[in-house]
């Protein structure tokens, strides 16, 4: 007698060999298989800071084959528990993985730059016999703040009633560009 169970999207198909005859039986009970619990990608990160990406899953009775991270559809990190070494990162502009602080459920990106902005996707795959795969994604935008506050130029030392004031307000370099708003005596 042989038995094969396939767990995919929590549906089960059972094949039984009995007396040389293969029969397919649809099994409606709750199936235990890999589940994605949460993918966490910080929506905004400051340039030069670290960003922690999390991919939380529950294997239940499955065994982990791999966890793979992609940025804009390009693979940059892979964790395979049976490989030696278990972690491998691929060169991708703007991405620097801290292997000492990364594992099967989190990836730490260090010293992020503007090229690290994009869509991040985590894909978790189980081993045989289920070969179940789940994925989730999130967008991260890397921002660069100006190094100093805005500068107002064009002011005169003395003004008379009725004078026209022509001023310029300039922000330091930033990404995205800073939005400037004028206030007179604390009022917009």
UniProtKB/TrEMBL annotation:
Keyword list, A-Z: Disulfide bond, Membrane, Transmembrane, Transmembrane helix
Domain Ig-like: 48-132, 150-188
Protein name: Ig-like domain-containing protein
Species this chain originates from: Diploptera punctata
């Amino acid at each position: 007698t042989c038995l094969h169970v396939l767990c995919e999207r929590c549906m089960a198909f059972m094949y039984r060999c009995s007396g040389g005859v293969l029969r397919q039986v649809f099994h409606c009970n709750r199936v235990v298989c890999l589940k994605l619990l949460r993918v966490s990608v910080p929506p905004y990160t400051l340039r030069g800071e670290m960003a922690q990406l999390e991919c939380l899953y529950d294997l239940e009775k499955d065994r982990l084959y791999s966890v793979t991270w992609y940025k804009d559809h390009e693979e940059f990190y892979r964790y395979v528990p049976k490989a030696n070494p278990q972690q491998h990162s691929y060169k991708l502009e703007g991405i620097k993985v801290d292997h000492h602080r990364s594992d099967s459920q989190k990836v730490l990106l260090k010293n992020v730059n503007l090229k690290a902005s994009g869509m991040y996707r985590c894909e978790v795959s189980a081993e045989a016999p289920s070969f179940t795969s789940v994925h989730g994604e999130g967008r991260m935008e890397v921002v660069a703040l100006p190094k100093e506050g805005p500068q107002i130029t064009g002011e005169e030392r003395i003004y008379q009633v009725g004078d026209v004031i022509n001023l310029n307000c300039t922000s330091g370099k930033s990404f995205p560009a800073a939005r400037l708003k004028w206030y007179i005596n604390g009022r917009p």
